Amino acid sequence: MSTQQLPEHPDFLWRNPEPKSSYDAVIVGGGGHGLATAYFLAKNHGMTNIAVLEKGWLAGGNMARNTTIIRSNYLWDESAAIYEHALKLWEILPEELEYDFLFSQRGVMNLAHTLGDVRESMRRVGANQLNGVDAEWLDPKQVKELCPILNISDNIRYPVMGATYQPRAGIAKHDHVAWAFARKCDELGVDIIQNCEVTGFVKDGNRVVGVKTNKGTINTEKVGLAAAGHSSVLAEMAGFRLPIQSHPLQALVSELHEPVHPTVVMSNHVHVYVSQAHKGELVMGAGVDSYNGYGQRGSFHVIEHQMAAAVELFPIFARAHVLRTWGGIVDTTLDASPIVGNTPVENMFVNCGWGTGGFKATPAAGMTFAHNIATGTPHQLNKPFALERFETGALIDEHGAAAVAH
Amino acid sequence: MLLISCPNCGSRDETEFHYGGQAHVAYPENPNELNDREWAEFLFYRDNTKGAFAERWLHSTGCRQWFNMLRDTVTYDIQAVYPMGTPRPAAAPAAPESGTASLAADSTTTGTAAPSISGTSTSAPSISATGTTASTTAPEGATK
């Protein structure tokens, strides 16, 4: 690995149009998922008279705040299918979008620190292999070979007992991903409308027919919600509830360093995940703050806790400095799986509940959500993630693979 | 880091507490009569309020008692601390001053039933706008 040259910032990648009075479909939320949805609506379903409404600036929410990890090593068939589809799309998207967003398949390790971790991890490796997801089990020596700066000695509180490893996993430049989608959307005729906050919905009976915004009312036949942490707020405006809780999730970066960290390391047990960005910052995240919060900030003890874990696992980080910390608002569900599908309101669709791991799913979330919006029925891949599963009991428990404590 | 006024122990760091989610969610009175939708509501659906939110906290490394708190989920300002089993106080109109602790909390003991709000007088208890289980008088510990 080496530090790579980033592409120059181009002048303008998309127009900034005023909203039209009506669209065939409106996507609420101009983050990665909203933009990917618009892209696939235009590309796969020929729906180009559509708009993406963003209350702030494009990709300024969780798309600007995540730690950019991409992987598909989830336990259950339903999750492996949708995340692996996402990973396959990541592999072809730079060419398709004609934009190199530096998708770097440097592998992801999920460390095991207890016997319980080891058993769960080995089970997950087996399940991954059966689902066609590249996964292997590494013993501590192999862990050390792949990531020499990791401390695998016995003299730490939770010694490394091994790890799962997915070689095709990696990281990408999140901002560039958003810009790549936005540029293509714009080329295809999609209106991306920033500083446009949704304040309500217009309904005809139980059918949504319009969106009220601070820029006026926009008539539309279909509405797709892709607002992550604010999904509950939108759902309440529309008259239904979602089984999600919004929590602060914090992350941080160090100053720039020479390349020292060749892969991505995640530890569910001691609560830290670390990679080194292309420019050289160490990028780290941890678990969510325990309380509900919309404040895009969390408590400092969470940062302290994750730093303690990071320094124990990577002793050379002890002299690095925290340069910047920030928080996003993540929409967690009780089974740590997303909700993508129809809602109790006719012609309104929802894509939410990705919690702490939505970035990696961006292309597949967009593809399936676009299918769901265009056809009115779920794609095979998002069907299991319907809202109804909380009534049927067909939950998809991914707390083990989600890697972040919800 | 939140500074939380435990009704029994006084102001302590957030790290001494555990979060218990939405307050005033009563166990269904007739669980056998619920349909799947109603069960789903009870098990998985909680309010996710942006603004003043009534929630439960446990002082795990102190008195180990549960209590309720009214906290703004945007500013994280703590507006009231009150015992379990008492109704939710009205939300403070606007955050009077900064600071995360309830003013009256230190004098509130387990035996005191009256909820206290910082800055304003108590008014009629209000029920969270989207709450479906409308009980504000769940007995202490009934929801755990």
Order of helices and strands of chain A: EHEEHEHEHEEHEEEEHEEEEHEEEHHH
Total helical elements of chain B? 1
CATH topology of the domain at 3-27 and 41-83 in chain B: Folate-binding fold
At the fourth level of CATH, the homologous superfamily of the domain at 3-27 and 41-83 in chain B is Folate-binding superfamily
Find the biggest chain interface: A-B, 25 and 30 residues
Structural class of chain B: mainly beta
Q: Classify the helix fraction of chain A into a percent range.
A: 25-40%
Mean pLDDT of chain B: 76
Query: What kind of sheet is the major sheet of chain A?
Result: 8 strands, mixed
In this structure, how is the largest beta sheet of chain B organized? 5 strands, antiparallel
| Overall form of chain B | globular
State the low-pLDDT regions of chain A, or none: none
Q: Which strand order spans the largest sheet of chain B, edge to edge or round the barrel?
A: 3-4-5-6-7
Strand content of chain A: 25-35%
Spatial separation of the terminal alpha carbons of chain B: 25 Å
The helix content of chain B is under 10%
Number of distinct beta strands of chain B: 7
Given the helix and strand composition of chain A, which structural class is it?
alpha/beta
SSE arrangement of chain B, N to C: EEEHEEEE
Describe this protein's structure:
The complex is a heterodimer of chains A (406) and B (144). Chain A contains ten helices and 18 strands. By secondary structure, chain A is α/β, with parallel strands linked by helices. In chain A, α1 packs parallel to α5, α1 crosses α8 and α2 crosses α8. The longest helix of chain A has 20 residues. Chain A is globular and about 65 Å long. By secondary structure, chain B is mostly beta strands. Chain B has a domain of 68 residues: Folate-binding superfamily (Folate-binding fold, 2-Layer Sandwich). In chain B, the strands form two sheets. A five-stranded antiparallel sheet of chain B has the order 3-4-5-6-7, with no helix packed on it. Chains A and B meet through α6 and α9 of A and β3 and α1 of B.
